[in-house]
Amino acid sequence: MLEIRDLHAKVEGREILRGIDLRVNAGEVHAIMGPNGSGKSTLAQVLAGRDSYQVTAGEVRYEGRDLLTLAPEERAVAGIFLSFQYPVEIPGVGNLYFMRTALNALRLQRGLEAIDAMDFLTLAKEKMKLVEMDPSFVNRSVNEGFSGGEKKRNEILQMAILEPKLAILDETDSGLDIDALRTIAAGVNALRAPDRALLVVTHYQRLLEYIVPDHVHVMVNGRLVASGGKDLALELEKRGYAGFEPQPATPATNATRTAVGARP
Amino acid sequence: MSAVQNELRAFTEREYQYGFVTEIETDEVPRGLNEDVIRLISSKKNEPEWLLAWRLKAYRHWLTMAEPSWANVVHPPIDYQDIIYYSAPKPKGPGLKSLDEVDPEVRAMFNKLGISLAEQERLSGVAVDAIVDSVSVGTTFKDKLAAVGVIFCSFSEAVRDHPELVREYLGSVVPYSDNKHATLNSAVFTDGSFCYIPKGLRCPMELSTYFRINAADTGQFERTLIIADEGSYVSYLEGCTAPIRDKNQLHAAVVELVALKDAQIKYSTVQNWYPGDAEGRGGIFNFVTKRGKCAGANSKISWTQVETGSAITWKYPSVILQGDNSVGEFYSVALTANRQQADTGTKMIHIGKNTRSTILSKGISAGRGQNTYRGLVKILPGATGARNHTQCDSLLLGDQCGAHTFPYIEVKNPSARVEHEASTSKIGEDQLFYCRQRGIPAEDAVSMIVNGFCREVFKELPMEFAVEAQKLLSVSLEGCVG
Ligand SMILES: Nc1ncnc2c1ncn2[C@@H]1O[C@H](COP(=O)(O)OP(=O)(O)O)[C@@H](O)[C@H]1O
Ligand SMILES: [Mg+2]
Questions:
Q1: Which of A11, B237, B287, B441: CA 20 to 30 A from B153?
Q2: Atom 2 of ligand 1: nearest residue by CA position
Q3: What is the pLDDT of residue A260?
Q4: Where are the domains of chain B?
Q5: Ligand 1 within 6 A of A174 CB?
Q6: pLDDT value at B261 more than 90
Q7: CB B334 within 8 A of CB B363
Q8: For the segment B168-203, what is each residue's pLDDT rounded down to a tens digit?
Q9: What gap in Å lies between CA B480 and CA B6, rounded to an integer?
Q10: A157 three-class SS
Q11: pTM of this structure
């Protein structure tokens, strides 16, 4: 579904991603872990098409298409969803209205009919139950005055409504208490399907107890330096990232390449 | 250049929808301004002697006045001798007896503008006084309104049929000597709307004036006078458009509102005069004096404006809070794109006890637009317990535009409470990206974000107008917004 090859990206002249290789098949859940500042959010934003990040080398194919040539809204139409690490507030724009506008924009591009306000309300209420969101949130402005946890819940609500094929969750667990974490994970798990994939970015393994990954990758300093199964997350929790300090052109990198980039 | 910059640049290249010209035969007075022109205008309207005297008094005073220079706008000096002060569509017959006799070309022009002069049609809840250049060409629902005691007619008719009311209130809120533009209007005003709501009546429909400038080189100088008698209520709407011309045209209007005891007036404007082109050529100079007087206790005057047009907007809809417990409100959205300049705001003059005022101003600047909020809150010594809350928010789209805020506060009564909040924000790359990530195209996203910014003001508009205003904002943002 998603294939990233030797991806390099710069922001404000500084190279942040320094050769990422990753392959995600439909039905899989991949976790990317790594210390703060290692480039996890940068990868997520590059995949979603943020143009303040400049791709300097490499390629990304998504369902056989060259993802990097698509505008952010075209990527959304193609089924890519990013749950933001820092969701944005949009004062004066109703949350429900925003989500309906988004859903209808996607439907329009996919040749489907728009959903009217009444039908959408029914849909939204059903999805809000899934993430246990208080109905009062529909009448508030997008993320305005939401607590950190409420914002994350709102991201997952949007994901549930938009039903993406590839969902990228950037630190969805930060700011959540354990109960909130469980409901959100339940919401995410409800979306797992053979034709969908998840890329879960986190720096705690806590979330991975609830959203169990098929693959775990370690990102350090703009590279994926190790890959493994879900046990790698536990190991990281014990050892920390210290063992993965960047060592340019060392066997660790090569090992990663082999492990991560297991090409057909 | 980033995506936001591109989107916002496109904003500055928006097109003006109402820029067409209609071929109508007109009756004009010679170009230029002097006492003879004023006498001619007055005689064309068969005015009484007192009104001509008032005009001439204003004109002689005007000659002594300097151009106001304090506003944060730049324009070449206005050549008052190069303006045609009276231009009226020529009546086809010997004078209009009913709306059916409105010139078909004029009727077609209004249809094109989306305004129906047929009473049974779409806007059946709204009575319209249609003004083209210098005169009113028709007022709908006049008879139906007259049946409940509402007088709604052109200013000229009011002078003829209700001279006692006009004489009592004309200039009672905006004196002829008020400021250079208002004084010019007092000397040369040609028509406008007049409205009187009798005691205790809630006006059964919205009243409105639609202003259309059509002829070239004319100025539009109209006056509106609205009197709400004790315990009455009226909601009044005003809309305006003009053709695309590469010369500036002057629009210097005066609006006076009088609310007697327990009366309420809600006045809403959607101003969409031709704004000029991307280089700043042409467009209307919109120099308007609007003021209301809460003359009686417990009265209320509420101004809501959505200003998207004009090359220059110079406008401060104000309220004199004379009656005890009276309330003044000002809700404003002003958008400047291209090289548009707006210097707008309000004055709230608290005279009576426990008077309250609310100011909510939303300024949006794009392109090379300059947007200034200028407001005065004045609490006089007798205004015990007066309160004001002011909030001014500015939104910048792009980095070549400007937002400025000049709040003036004068408090002469220690029991008064005055609060002022202000904010300036830039439309964020992050907000735009967030919307686009969800699938919303960039243009729609900008429109949505800007509409969200204006929401608190839009919700003060009557339903139909609110929809209109949102559409207008979106059209104005076209190229940058959907
Ligand atoms: N917009 C930006 N401008 C400047 N530097 C940035 C920007 N975004 C990220 N960075 C820098 O890139 C590095 C990686 O950041 P990020 O991808 O957010 O890491 P992570 O999500 O793994 O914590 C950090 O050093 C950060 O300061
Ligand atoms: Mg991050």
A1: B287
A2: A11
A3: 40
A4: 2-476
A5: no
A6: yes
A7: yes
A8: 999 999 999 999 899 999 999 988 889 999 999 999
A9: 8
A10: helix
A11: 0.80
